[in-house]
Known about the structure:
0% strand; mainly alpha
Amino acid sequence: MALAMCDSSFLSLPEVNDVLLMTFSINEPDAMVKFALLTTLGSVIGCALLYAVGRKGGEAFLRRSIAHERLARVRRWYQRHGVLAVIIPSLLPPPTPFKIFVLSAGTFGISWPKFLTAVVIGRGIRYFSEGLLAVVYGPAAIRFVQDNYGMMGIGLALLIVAAAIIFFLTRRRVRSSEA
């Protein structure tokens, strides 16, 4: 849990959480849920710390790091897409720069409950999926995930986007039929 917290906040340890989670799950399949839950919890705590930094001083950091026009585009994107701007990158594998999305969520005012929900869902899906793959397929799962990490992340992100589109279209249709 501490490692996941550090990785999701200020220290970058690409793939370490994933490989450790899968290794522990292979060695103790009955404890996979516990391992995935602790990894998710640690990641969420680390993200919460970075989110808080974004709320306090993220704007100044981003202004120094990103061109003004691009920063304005990023701000509009967060205001328009909010939760999706967090949940999609939370699913993506390293080397996706997830920390910048977390920092930006705090900086651009994504509400705490929405942010927390997005991170719990995204990281939970990622870590529980990896744990399940490890239990079902054993050591071959680690090799598979390492070899196909990018495609798996893109696939998960596309599923989330498709689900969000279906949700919003259904909600819009229900609202228009009620009017």
